[in-house]
Target: YCII-related domain-containing protein
Amino acid sequence: MATKYDWIVLIPDHKGALAKRIAARPDHLKGIASRIESGAWIMGGPSLEYPPIDGQEKAINGSCIVANAPSREEVMEEIKKDIYATSGVWNLEKIAILPETLLASNKSARSSIGTSRIEANLRDSSQCPWR
Model:
């Protein structure tokens, strides 16, 4: 088995893609659940233009993912399968896939992060976490 590495993945959204993002969100959450379970994606979420301001919508400008794979190419193949990629939310021409070496980690958090939150989001996909 090939050695796997952690990768920080920064994917900007196309300009004006928020409506597409909201429409694709339920399918995106279903898709990432299996990637988290398999360990291909460790964690992720929307990236923001600026820190959240109470009472205002978050200014989403893309996504940030920590992936685990043997190569940059395998990370990209997983990204390309996501509905945010296939529906035109993510701007894959501007993606950054950076190798990362974890110096500190909470292994129990690493193994469980994401799945309970994804399940909660799937139960009520009408609620956008950025609102």
User: Anything to note?
Assistant: Helices lie at 18-38, 72-81, 83-86, 107-112, 115-123. DSSP finds five helices and four strands in the chain. The first strand starts at residue 5 and ends at 12.
